[in-house]
Design goal:
The chain contains eleven helices and 32 strands. The chain is of the alpha+beta class.
Length: about 625
C-alpha cells in the first residue's frame, strides 16, 4: 500500500505578505550546536536546570506525610539528568527504590537566563522525561503532575515564581520496579540485570529547563512534507490570539542561501491550531526536485521562522525550526524513500551507556553516536525500546540517518497497560512527527504485552488499534504492527531470525518460494509471522533482527553472551560477512537490522564495545556490512 502525503483538511487562507516586521534575532535551527533540548522549536534564550540537585530515596513512601514538598531534610545530592541507578549521577544505587525525591532552587538569575521580561511574561518549566510518574511543587504548592516515563511535559509556573524571590522546586518521582503494566522497555524487573534486560532508569533522565514566552505564543509545530514542492504545517498556540492576529512563515535553504517562500495567514480565533500548506517557490522544473530532497546521502534541511503578529503588525512571538523535504512509502514489496526503492541497512541501538544508563553522557555523545553508525556503513538505526533524546534525532536529521521510532513495551496485557502505553505512544509520535529522519513507527515488539495475540481477540484488537492510531496521528509513514512476528495490520512484514550460519540464512530468504514459506509457516522463532487471518498483501519483508554475534577482544565477561560466539577477530568478521552475503543474495528482502550497535551490560554482541570503540578496525566492519571496500 501507499502511504499518502498528508494534507491539512482545513488550511488557512494565505494572503499577500505585508512589509517585513522586525522580529527577535533567532538562531538558525538546523545549524545549532545540538544542545537545545527541543531542537525543532527554538527561541533566543533558555535556561538549563541540569546539575546538582538535592536527592533522597523514599522506600517507605513517607515523604508526603513528612512534608518533603517544601524541601528535603538530610538529603544527599545527585547530578541531573542522570538517573540515580547510574554512576554519572553520583548516587550509583541500582537497587529497588520505587519513590525518589529531588529539590533545587529557582533564582532570579535562572529566570533571567530563561529570557524572562515584561514582554516574555509566562515562565514554563520543561521536563524532557521523568520515569514514571512525577509530581512537582514550588514552595510547597503543587504545580503539576505527569505520568509517562519517556515523554516530555511542561508546566506553566508563572504564578509561582514571578516575584523576584528565590523559590524551592521539588520533584517526586514514582517508578515501581515490579509494575509490568508500565511501559518499561529494556528496564529489568529483577534486582540485577538478566538475559536481555538492563539496569533501571528511575526519575529524571532527560534535561530540565526553563523558558520564558509571551502571553500568546507558539506551543508546537508539526511539519509534514507534501512532496518536494510543498509542506504542510500545523501550529498549536498557547493562549488566545486576538481577532486579526496573523502568522508569518518563512522558509530558507541555508546551504544555498536561498529563500524558498514566505506565507502569511490570519489566525482563526475559534481554535488553538493553525493549518496551512506552504508552496516551495523555486524556479526549477520537475527534473531538479532531487536537489532539495532529504536523504541519508544528502541530508538537506530547510530552515523556518514562524512569527506571530498582532493586528497592528507587532511581533507577539517568533520561533525558529527546520524540516526535511522527503517522502516515505511502501509499494510492490519495496520500501520507498522519495518514491524510489531504498535498501534499509539498519543497526539495533539500545541507547544505553555504561555510566549513565538511558541518558547520554553529553549532547556531544549523541552526535558521535550518529557519526559512528554511519561510519560503520549503516543507513538507518532502530532505537530499541526507547523514546530517544530529541537531540539524537536532530543529529540524525542533520547528518543523514534513517530512524525507526519504537515504543518502550509493557509486559502485561491489562486495561491499565493498554491505556498507559497508548497514551505514552501517542505523545511520543506527536513529539517526533516532524523529524525527517524518522521513517517508520514501531508501537509493539515481539508480542511484548500481547503474549497470546495468535489466540486472543482482545490482544489482536489492541495490536490493530495501536497501528491504526499511529496512522491516524501520522499517515505519512509506514507502521510495523508488531516487530518480529505475529503481525496483525503491518505496512512492513518483519522477521527476527538469529540463525548463525550464513548458508542456512541464504536458503531461508533466497527467493519468492522462500518468502512464501517464511510468511505462511511458524517463522524462525517458532512464531507465526501473520495472525488474525491476515494474508500476505505483498508488503515489503525485512529481517529486522539478526546477527548478535558475541565477541570480546581481550578480557571476557563471565556472563557475556550473544546468539552465536566468535573465537577471534577474523572469525567474527567472517560470521558477519556470511550473514550479510545471505541478505544481499535475497531476491525479496527490502531491508535488515543487525543486532547490535554496542555491547550493553551482559549482552556482548555489539559491533562496538560499551565505550563505543570498534572491536575490529571499523573499515573492516563497514566492508562486511556494505559488501564494498
Amino acid at each position: 500500500m501507499h502511504i499518502d502525503d498528508a494534507v491539512p483538511t482545513t488550511p488557512a487562507s494565505p494572503s499577500p505578505v505585508a512589509p517585513p516586521v522586525a522580529a527577535p534575532t533567532l538562531p538558525v535551527a538546523s545549524r545549532q550546536d545540538g544542545t537545545h533540548p527541543r531542537p525543532q522549536l527554538i527561541r533566543g534564550r533558555w535556561a538549563s536546570l541540569d546539575g546538582t540537585w538535592s536527592f533522597r530515596h523514599d522506600d517507605a513512601d513517607a515523604g508526603l506525610i513528612a512534608g518533603w514538598t517544601v524541601g528535603l531534610p538530610d538529603a544527599g545530592v545527585i547530578t541531573v539528568p542522570f538517573p540515580p541507578e547510574s554512576v554519572a549521577s553520583g548516587v550509583d544505587e541500582p537497587g529497588f527504590h520505587p519513590v525518589v525525591w529531588y529539590a533545587r532552587s529557582i533564582s532570579a538569575e535562572d529566570l533571567e537566563r530563561a529570557g524572562h521580561s515584561a514582554d516574555a511574561s509566562r515562565v514554563l518549566l520543561h521536563f524532557g522525561a521523568v520515569d514514571h510518574r512525577a509530581s512537582v511543587w514550588i514552595d510547597g504548592a503543587l504545580v503539576g503532575t505527569h505520568e509517562g516515563g519517556h515523554t516530555p511535559f511542561t508546566i506553566d509556573v508563572t504564578a509561582s515564581v514571578d516575584d523576584g524571590r528565590t523559590h524551592t522546586l521539588v520533584v517526586r518521582a514514582e517508578d515501581d520496579p515490579h509494575d509490568v503494566t508500565q511501559p518499561r522497555g529494556k528496564q529489568d524487573w529483577h534486582e540485577e540485570p538478566h538475559a536481555i534486560w538492563y539496569r533501571r532508569t528511575t526519575g529524571i533522565w532527560q534535561t530540565v529547563w526553563l523558558e520564558a514566552v509571551p502571553p500568546v505564543s507558539v506551543e508546537a509545530l508539526r511539519w509534514v512534507p507534501a512532496g518536494a514542492t510543498a509542506v504542510a504545517l500545523g501550529v498549536r498556540l498557547r493562549g488566545a490570539a486576538r481577532a486579526g492576529a496573523r502568522m508569518r512563515v518563512a522558509l530558507r535553504w541555508e546551504d544555498r542561501g536561498e529563500d524558498l517562500g514566505t506565507t502569511e495567514v490570519t489566525v482563526p480565533t475559534a481554535t488553538d491550531t493553525v493549518d496551512l500548506v506552504l508552496p516551495i517557490a523555486r524556479q526549477v522544473n520537475g527534473q531538479a526536485e532531487d536537489e532539495i530532497r532529504w536523504s541519508p546521502e544528502h541530508p538537506r534541511l530547510v530552515d523556518a521562522t514562524v512569527t506571530l503578529l498582532d493586528p497592528a503588525g507587532a511581533v507577539l512571538d517568533a520561533v525558529s525550526s527546520y524540516l526535511g523535504l522527503r517522502t516515505v512509502a511502501v509499494d510492490r514489496g519495496a520500501f520507498l524513500l522519495n518514491d524510489r526503492p531504498y535498501d534499509v541497512r539498519s543497526v539495533l541501538n539500545q541507547g544505553y551507556w555504561p555510566d549513565s544508563n538511558l541518558t547520554a553522557p553529553s549532547p556531544e555523545a549523541l552526535r558521535r553516536e550518529v557519526e559512528l553508525i554511519k561510519e560503520l556503513g549503516f543507513t538507518a538505526t532502530r532505537i530499541h525500546q526507547k523514546i530517544e533524546d530529541p537531540r539524537f534525532l536532530f543529529w540524525a536529521d542533520r547528518l543523514g540517518l534513517l530512524v525507526w521510532g519504537e515504543a518502550p513495551g509493557a509486559y502485561a496485557f491489562t486495561p491499565t497497560a493498554v491505556q498507559r502505553l497508548m497514551r505514552e505512544w501517542m505523545d511520543a509520535v506527536e513529539r517526533d512527527v516532524s523529524h525527517p529522519s524518522i521513517v517508520t513507527w514501531v508501537p509493539l515488539n515481539e508480542s511484548w504485552g500481547i503474549q497470546h495475540v495468535p489466540q486472543d481477540r482482545a490482544q489482536q484488537a489492541y495490536s490493530r488499534a495501536l497501528a491504526d492510531v499511529t496512522r491516524a496521528l501520522d499517515p505519512s509513514r509506514p507502521v510495523i504492527s508488531n516487530d518480529g512476528w505475529e503481525h496483525t495490520a503491518s505496512d512492513i512484514l518483519t522477521v527476527h531470525d538469529y540463525e548463525g550460519d550464513g548458508a542456512v540464512l541464504a536458503r531461508t530468504y533466497g527467493d519468492a518460494a522462500a518468502r512464501t514459506a517464511v510468511l505462511s509457516g511458524m517463522g524462525p522463532a517458532t512464531r507465526r509471522i501473520l495472525v488474525d487471518g491476515v494474508e500476505d498483501q505483498g508488503q515489503p519483508v525485512m529481517l529486522t533482527e539478526f546477527g548478535g554475534v558475541q565477541y570480546q577482544p581481550g578480557a571476557r565477561r563471565e556472563d557475556g553472551w550473544g546468539y552465536t560466539a566468535a573465537t577471534d577477530g577474523d572469525d567474527y568478521l567472517d560470521r558477519i560477512t556470511a550473514l550479510y552475503d545471505a541478505i544481499r543474495a535475497s531476491t525479496f528482502l527490502a531491508g535488515s537490522c543487525y543486532t547490535q550497535l554496542t555491547d550493553t551490560l551482559q549482552e556482548t554482541n555489539g559491533l562496538l564495545t560499551a565505550e563505543r570503540e570498534p572491536k575490529v578496525p571499523i573499515e573492516r566492519i563497514r566492508r562486511a556490512v556494505t559488501g564494498r571496500g
